Amino acid sequence: MKEKIKQKIYSGERLNDQEALTLFDWDLPELGHAADFRRGLISPENTVGFIVDRIINYSNLCEAKCDFCAFHARGNVIKEYELSLDDILRKTEELHRIGGSQVMLQGGLHPDKKIEYYEKILKEIKGSFPEISLHSFSPSEIVHISLMSGLSVENVLERLLNAGLDSVPGASDLLVDRIRKMVSPNKIDADTWESTMRTMHRFSIKSSATMTYGMGETLEERISHLMRIRKLQDDTGMIRAFITWSFSPNMTKLQDITPSTGTDYLKTVTVSRIVLDNVKYIQAGWLTEGMKIAQISLAMGVNDMGGVLMEETVVKATGITENTNAPEMIELIKNAGKTPVRRNSSYEEIERYS
User: Fold this and answer.
1) Do 65 and 72 touch, CB atoms closer than 8 A?
2) Residue 229 sits in a domain of what CATH number?
């Protein structure tokens, strides 16, 4: 069985769900080698990209109140707050000053705001910084805006695009309703996430997809998540990158869960690379895994380091304090035997560091 699967991997064939599940039993070096071979089929250059960006969490007032989140106001870790438009523009200006190119606006499911609020933020940022890409909100946030505003998802997307939205982060958490009902019952279910993504595709919106694991799911459920992402990508081609995050339980309502190990992360990200044979970029989850594990993953099929992240507050609310900067990122990629490439939101090369 294993030899047959290995032959399929190295001949570029697609694995089914049962075959993919057995990969978790492989030794990590062998699995990593197979994943990097598959990376070479879709992305043969020996480059690793990164972007200089900033996440602006404009509020932590969120109706989702997910058990896996320490950031929302009722998580009792961070007091409730809401940034002013001047605050948001100041943060964007700080990013622009250091040569950053992307802002990710995130605020969860706000209990009061309607479409006009989000339009104003987008228009003001684009009016002042037209070269900054707005990779913002999420399918859950877009559905919530539509409900709060009494508009269809289509109308919301059209208005946000007209206001300056460039792309949308997929933020898929785990596309398994058994887990979603336990840890985030107030967020959209898996089918609604997918239907929102498909609606976005009709507007030619590019996105990403994620997987947050380590919340009590089975390995079969992780594979189910990956298969759903793969099918969506087959149908739309809208997913630019896939990012795997391990759940950080500290300071959340799920803090009794034992954190996932570095080995579990490396196996999960390598399996993701092999299964997602139609997604060009697999990002290293350095923010949750740390820079050393992220560097190892670059030899195991990962070919993007994501954002330098001038600012990030949601994960930091769990006590994780990983941070980096462009020179450190460049050096880390070089030391992994790869060529660093600074890119934009569309994964186009801005600068290469030899």
Assistant:
1) yes
2) 3.20.20.70
